[in-house]
Predict the 3D structure of the following.
Amino acid sequence: MAFAAKGRFFAAVATALIVTAGAAQAAAGCGNNSAGFSTWVEQYKQEAQAQGVGSRGINALDTVNYATKTINADRNQKSFKYSLDKFMQVRGGQTIISRGKAQKAQNAALFANIEKRYGVPAGPLIAIWGMETGFGSFMGNQHTLSAVTTLAYDCRRPEYFRDQLNAALKLIDNGTLAPNAIGAMHGEIGQTQFLPLNVLRYGADGDGNGRIDMVRSKADALASTANFLRGHGWQAGAGYQPGQPNYGAIQGWNAASVYQQAIAIIGARIDGE
């Protein structure tokens, strides 16, 4: 290759590297409002591909919009600032206990199978199920992928939610999540409100039909929740109140201490402790 040609070749390579680096930096950026969101999404497609996301997941990004309601909810999470008594009142703790006991009786075989498989008794699973969605009665009204993509773009916790976004796109790739799926404000999915990465890691086929459906199958949702707790150190037969071995697994479910305590209290009442 002639010197002049070599010069042009290396200049072209340098230019390509600069453009690629610039795109990567732009994709790695963030924003605190909708300005720039659409451009960021287009640039993020390259990063998603590098993370192993396939064409179905990449194409799903064409359906997203900046989720203003998600941002507003993220900025105003007040319930975790309550006292335990106030939190139990707001979340309807006594109602969950009452309804939870009925759910345990009605689904005795399911909970027995889950405990045999994962070592987790019915009480804490039902407590989570009741507090998260009222036993599947309301699982959210936000476009899941828009919520997760918006939080991945937002400057508050971008790295955390970029992992969630990549997971959501992979769930779309494998057919577990529909591109138009509806869920909670932060992208939580199904009857016990799993974030996408947790569906990938802990999603379980609780009803034996060969697929994981966190929305329509309570067996899948509850088995996945038990699998999550086991994955966070749950020991079969050990206690789950504060100071006992399994309380750490409950802490893995939610970072708010009032939420952790509520799970332990409600679960114990349902289990008859």
